Amino acid sequence: MLSIFKVLWNNLKQGPSTDPFPFGETFTPARLRGKVTIDPHSCVGCGVCATVCAGNAIKHVEREDGSGKDFYVWHNTCAFCGMCQHYCPTNAIRLTNDWSTAHRNEDKYKMKEHEFIAYARCSECDQAMPKMPHAMLEHIYGTPTEELENIYSLCPECRRQKAAQQFGAHIHD
Q1: What is the mean pLDDT of residues 55-65?
Q2: CA nearest 46: which of 88, 18, 94?
Q3: For a Cys staple, 115 with which of 38, 60, 129, 143, CB 3.0–4.6 Å?
């Protein structure tokens, strides 16, 4: 019986052994996979993340006006597996260490990340097209030249026409 009082006394001297959450800060591991964030300036809207998403939590929805895509990540279905981050070719999608997704049941459809991924416009014909971030050009080509940046400012049809003009000019020389 005396040993029980000794244990109780030691526990009272040591204080709480749990984190003070939700009334104070708690320990979060540095590599914890939490809420997803999207950088709309780096995203090209390729959809690789939606394809590899284990929970089917990522949706790309084309806007009717053709100006770009709405990008959604639904936290209630996200498994926090990290596949989207791993396979994103432009590093536009990241898992943070923000793990707090507690919410009332009536708010479950509001628990999402939403970004608008705007399309670029062709410098020749002004057609909407997926953009090519400068960082991606650097990754593929090293330091991109002005000519290369001009090529990627054109839609595929204008690129074909420009290539045909240049190719045709070289044949006749």
Answers
A1: 93
A2: 88
A3: 38
